[in-house]
Amino acid sequence: VGVGGSGKQSLAKLASFICGYEVVTISVSSSYGVNDFKEALLSLYTKAGMKTTPVTFLMTDNQIVKEEFLVFLNDLLATGLITDLFTQEDKENFCNAVRNECKSAGILDTMENLWDFFIDKVRRYLHVVLCFSPVGDKFRIRARQFPALVNCTVFDWFHAWPHEALVSVSQRFLEEIPDIFDETRENIAYHMAFVHQTTSQAAVRFRDMLRRHVYSTPKSFLELISLYKNLLAKKREELRANRERLESGVDKIAQASAQVADLQVNLKQEQIIVDEKKAQTDALIVNIGQEKAVVDEAVEAGREDEEACAKLAEEVSAFQEECARDLEAAEPIIAEAEAALNSLDKASLGELKSFGSPAAEVVQVVSACMVLTAPGGKIPKDLSWNAGKKFMGNVDSFLKSLVNFDKDNIPLACVDKVEKDYISNPNFNADYIRSKSGAAAGLCAWVVNICKYFRIYQVVAPKRANLAEANRKLDAANKKLSGIRAKVKELQDRVTALEENLMKATEDKNAAMAQAEKTATKAKLADRLINGLSSENKRWNETIAEMGVQEGTLIGDVLVAASFVSYVGPF
């Protein structure tokens, strides 16, 4: 018997555990009735009487939802027999279950003896523990209506815990709380005992004044300790988290301030880089302008030289065409001269050479050959037939000298004399002389055609010289133009390289400017943030200092709060 929270059920369960008894209780609900309770009791009889299981039947006054339950409990405590609980079949089953035990005990196995043996066994193995509260009139009324509750039970009265017990219990649980000095822990334990006992004293005055009962039970005291432990841990964690959050914010502001200073330094360095990049870019622009001017000048000079070369090329082409036309006119004459030589052979020349006194026309032909081929333009004085025969000498050598005759470089005096003294004679032609001698006719045709060719060559030679000079000038101009073009290409390549460098320098400059602008924006935003949080920084530091003070008083603050929550509510 004790007020709620005194530890009645806990002590009963502890005792059952020590003795090795199985604790059985009922779970009541809104539909739990008499039949359910009878089934629970029948199960207890079965465990204790049939299975020989030590059982503790634990029941509280809150589980007595119907007063009929007390009728069964009264019979159980008084005699061990409960009216109308067992059917005849149940009795037979129980008796048969203990028959062997009864015989072993030397008892005659009649039904009456078997039943008595079974009931005695139930009394021996079944213990009933009733947990009642003395508060109110119910306990007094039930004790009067059901005398077995008083006469057939042993009363264990649960009184209030003494001061020493309260202090000892609280100290035991307070040891689980870290970061508390032993002296402080002892003071907390004494304060908790003081709160519990003063609340009990106040409850007496409260009952006397208002006729209302308030109980301060050991359970209330244990709940105070549990609430204090949980609330202290929670408040410590909240305080720690809030302090860390504020300290983190203060650290972030300090870091941001340091970062702003670093950003300012970086910004100055980046601005120097930007200025250098701008100077490099401007220098490249000036250099490119100068190089382009040189290139334009070289291109203009090259254009003038190219025009001169084109003009020279036109002149050379005209000279070439004119010379080609003149030489084209000389080609038939050369062909006739070669044909005349081809008509000569060793036999015909031998025949010509064998003439003793040839015709005057034949002598003139040989004389004309002697004059035309005179070495160095020295015309021989003796142009007689005998001199002519000596001139022809070896026929093969003579014919070969005519074939290899340098027709382009004949002395002019020789040609003039041949034309004046011989070709001007109407009878000096191949057709006429052929009647005198075939070989002389061939020589005549050769002399006439060679002289004609020479006159044409006289006209062509200066032109060819001019053409050669023009070609030389053209080659020189082309070489000069090639040099100018190479120089222009080199200059253009330099300009292209400079333009590429300018493009890269411009990109580097723009990148440096963008980075500097980005850094400036970050520094500006960070500075604005720091300025905006300066007041918060001050307030946070003050709050952190206040939290340090709160941390020192938190043990007492939580103790007062837990005491009020645990005990002051009913008042």
Give a verbal description of the structure:
With 571 residues, the protein is an all-alpha fold. It has a domain at 8-159: Rossmann fold, CATH 3.40.50.300. It has helices at 8-19, 34-50, 68-78, 88-97, 99-104, 111-125, 138-145, 148-151, 163-174, 182-210, 218-342, 346-353, 360-372, 385-392, 395-403, 412-423, 430-434, 438-568, and strands at 22-24, 55-60, 126-131. It has a 3-stranded parallel β-sheet. Helix 2 (34-50) packs across helix 6, helix 9 runs parallel beside helix 11 and helix 13 (360-372) packs antiparallel against helix 16.
Distance between the termini: 25 Å
| Uncertain parts | none
User: In percent terms, what proportion of residues is strand?
Assistant: under 5%
Identify the overall geometry.
rod-shaped
Our Rg estimate from Cα atoms comes to 74 Å
Broad structural category = mainly alpha
Give helix and strand order, one letter per element, not per position.
HEHEHHHHEHHHHHHHHHHHH
The biggest beta sheet is recorded as: 3 strands, parallel
The CATH topology of the domain at 8-159 is given as Rossmann fold
Main location: cytoplasm
Protein name: Flagellar outer dynein arm heavy chain beta
GO molecular function, one term: ATP binding
Coiled coil: 229-280, 467-515
